[in-house]
Amino acid sequence: MRHRPQLPLPPEPDCHQVGAVLQSYLDGELGAEDTGVVAAHLEHCERCGIEAATVTRVIDAIRRQRPDLAPDPLVRLTGFVEQLGAGGPDPSGS
Amino acid sequence: MTTTTVRARTGTETDSVAHVADDRTDARFREQVLPELEVLYRVARRLTGSNSDAEDLVQDTLLKAYRAFDRFDGRYLRAWLLTIMRNHHRNQLRKRRPDLLDDEVAQRLPGHGQDARRDGVDERAFHDDLDPVVREALRSLSPKHRSVIALVDLDGLTYREAAELLGVPVGTVMSRLHRARSKVRSRLEAHLDVEDTS
Q: Which of B6, B121, B178 sits opposite A84 (nearest CB)?
């Protein structure tokens, strides 16, 4: 797939045009209109549909490697923001 | 109108700021920034390679954002916060190592050998046989490809946000992401081919 500055897709793009924006489509980076056009193409094009499903599985496999976050830092940071935004006391609690 | 004095973190690292803002601005800050904390912390861990340094970096970023919130134009909050974080982190590196040239500072950005897991971050339990193959494939990527896949797929940044953080065009993020995923895909397909023939 070759990446290029994204132009609006024609109403009935060919497989090459869809392939060029497939990654952006799967990442939710396309505008609403182009998203609808690609989705319609994938509905009736078996070859592009298989490619989209394959890439989706690869992306899902990668995203499963996302490390869990321990909750404590996020709790502390939430408290820090609430103190800042509330004009409250020293966020360190001292 | 309320007058607020905020002192950050530890006694040895006291940072005072006198900030005058109305309650609506404070509420807006809270409402808009709180949903971004997880992404900020994930990216900070990637930048610093340490949980504790990451928390400090996010606090510094939040404090700077709070001070500057009156001047924020209201668009692309996450990108704005990430820019503050990136610049602050870069300045910290320069202070610690003033001999570093810009290129060397850039080498310390995401994917250039920093590994947040070294600080004991809990990893999710893996239930899929393919996960070790994926992890190995990710480790085998070049730093520039690994950094993009980490920021977009693991940290949840948009193309634009990743490009801003890395200081490269959006098109570069897209092409690196495509190349990186293709390499992971090839590894997975090779693994599955071997399984099929064994």
A: B6
